[in-house]
Amino acid sequence: QNTVVLSAAIFISLIGLIIYLHFVKIDQESLLVIGSLGIQVTSSYASGKESTTFIEMGQVKDVVINEAIHMQKVIYYLCILLQDPEDPQGVSEVVPLFQSSKPRLDCLIEVYKSCQEILEQRKTASQSS
């Protein structure tokens, strides 16, 4: 009887570990910004599974670095602000990026500057045409 309980506990633990690796543990996050198309966010899980989200550039209002206070610590994270279709000056949604990897502020600033360059090129291209 004890071996059955022990075997069941080991089996349930292994199933839990597999579920954690497949659905929860993110190994790598990437961001691809193409000024004429949009922004692609990809998360690679420890199991090898990938999750990709694409945001059309017409929906993007801006990319910002936001800050939050968590457990007596300030955390910085990159966000995409989506434009409200009904109110061009408003924001309909805030999409946080790099939630699992939590890069340092200096890394976020580099990514932010690159994103802003691409967004500025898009704005100047649309104004000139």
From TrEMBL:
Question: What species does this protein belong to?
Answer: Cephalopterus ornatus (Amazonian umbrellabird)
Domain of life per record = Eukaryota
**GO CC, alphabetical:** glycosylphosphatidylinositol-N-acetylglucosaminyltransferase (GPI-GnT) complex
Q: One Pfam family, short name please?
A: PIG-H
Q: Which residues cross the membrane?
A: 6-24
Ordered alphabetically, the record's keywords are:
Membrane, Transferase, Transmembrane, Transmembrane helix
User: Cross-referenced PANTHER family, in alphabetical order?
Assistant: PHOSPHATIDYLINOSITOL N-ACETYLGLUCOSAMINYLTRANSFERASE SUBUNIT H
Q: What pathway or pathways are given for this protein in its record?
A: Glycolipid biosynthesis; glycosylphosphatidylinositol-anchor biosynthesis
Q: Which family does it belong to?
A: Belongs to the PIGH family.
Q: Which GO terms describe its biological process?
A: GPI anchor biosynthetic process
**Coiled-coil stretches:** none
Give the organism's phylogenetic lineage: Eukaryota, Metazoa, Chordata, Craniata, Vertebrata
- For the Phosphatidylinositol N-acetylglucosaminyltransferase subunit H conserved domain, which residue ranges apply? 30-99
Q: What is this protein called?
A: PIGH acetylglucosaminyltransferase
- Quote one Gene Ontology molecular function term: transferase activity
